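[AMINO ACID CHAIN]
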Amino acid sequence: MTYAELLDAFEGAHSEVFRLEVQQSYAGVPDPGWEAWKAGRSLPTRTADTDEWLAKTAAKIAAGVRWIRVIVVDWPLDEYLRYALAAYEAHVAVGEKVYVVDRDVDPALASLVDDFWMIDEEFVAIMRFDAEHRPVGPAAPQGPVDKFIARRDLVLANASSLSEWVADHREQLSA
């Protein structure tokens, strides 16, 4: 599978785009926001007017496509995840539904090891990373899409919205 195929699937989405993130760090992904975070600076302002990805997301949402992301977290949080939780506020601002779930709330969450995108419950792309957390490209899944629908349903049944999760974990996040 290629990135072009994944981008085509995004373009063709008509009902739902779902993203599951289970990696605890994406620090190998080039990201000016992450660099600012590490240096103690403010995050760059990202809006649909200034960020191409957010613009595409907002356009799909405006066309009626549900855009959902669930982040599965392990404690203690990796510093990158602390950054990501702050950065995803820009995604929420354009209408993306961002949820967070602690892996230890349900034993079934322990088996989730692959990040993936699922589009319209038809197309699935497993996202692969190297040991330094750099993306190495999407891959076609092994098995039927039903298993990814079940994974989506599992995490959503246990997750809280980003704002609720941050409020519930404020003390742990400030430690």
In short: The chain has one domain: 3-174. The domain at 3-174 is CATH 3.30.870.10 (Endonuclease; Chain A). The two ends are 41 Å apart (CA to CA).
